[in-house]
Amino acid sequence: MKTNNVILHAVVKLVVFIILTLSVYLFLSGHHKPGGGFIGGLVLASAFVLLFIAFDIEAIRKAIPFDFKRVAALGAFISVGTGFGSLLFGENFLTQAFGYFDLPFFGTTELTTVTIFETGVALVVVGVVVTIILSIVEDV
Amino acid sequence: MIQTILYFALTLFGIAIAIALFRIVFGPSLPDRVIALDMIGVNLISSMAIISIIIGTTFFLDVILIIGIIAFISTIAFSKYIERGGIIERKRDD
């Protein structure tokens, strides 16, 4: 019997963008409100897992051509690199700085270096979670 | 008055979660357990909204969104496991 899952594909193509938007919101709101790199990375990984469930592994591998182990390694490098970057200015390891800048479109915005560190944390979480789930699946 | 109603509703949601938990443990078939799990997710979302009204904060709304996403993905995974026997396929054949 030939099976089709048209409803699942149509719903998932819409819902994945909602989940990606929520993950970006959680990532950017993590400085003063609940959220942050870890939670944003987990929600991003859940969006990838939803894509892997709805479609198959080879189609998503062709659509998202990342090796997720290298994504995790790149995230760890960025996180540790921000720690060593503070040594260049004569501060302690992992010292973070922030400031208020006048941007042309956003107005007065607070820019910090914690965001770079959180980007590394999010990349590590995405890479590790997707690698764990794909290796569990491919063993069976 | 409104406090009494909120706490009463929270108690009723707790009773509903206990009933769904009974169905998960003693459910005769697998679809019963999946539906009970989804019902626990919906009840958790509702009780979280009532708790955020009682405390008077808006920080729990992110929790509501994330519980909704996790319940959606878990329901899809369980139903695909029941229908196909596997969750993630290597290569689709259609």
From TrEMBL, chain A:
UniProt-annotated location(s): Cell membrane
Domain Na+/H+ antiporter MnhB subunit-related protein: 7-131
Keywords: Cell membrane, Membrane, Transmembrane, Transmembrane helix
Gene Ontology CC: plasma membrane
Membrane topology per record: Multi-pass membrane protein
Transmembrane segments: 7-26, 38-59, 71-94, 114-137
Assigned protein family: Belongs to the CPA3 antiporters (TC 2.A.63) subunit B family.
This protein's name: Na(+)/H(+) antiporter subunit B
UniProtKB/TrEMBL annotation, chain B:
InterPro entries in the record: MrpF/PhaF-like
A GO MF term: sodium:proton antiporter activity
Protein topology in the membrane: Multi-pass membrane protein
Cellular-component GO terms for this entry: plasma membrane
Claim: Ion transport is one of the keywords in the record: yes
Keyword Membrane part of the UniProt annotation: yes
Keyword field: Antiport, Cell membrane, Ion transport, Membrane, Transmembrane, Transmembrane helix, Transport
Cellular compartment(s): Cell membrane
Entries under Pfam families matching the protein: MrpF_PhaF
Taxonomy, superkingdom: Bacteria
Positions of transmembrane segments: 6-26, 35-57, 63-82
Family, similarity comment: Belongs to the CPA3 antiporters (TC 2.A.63) subunit F family.
NCBIfam families named among the record's database cross-references: PRK12600.1
Name of protein: Na(+)/H(+) antiporter subunit F1
Organism: Oceanobacillus piezotolerans
Lineage: Bacteria, Bacillati, Bacillota, Bacilli, Bacillales
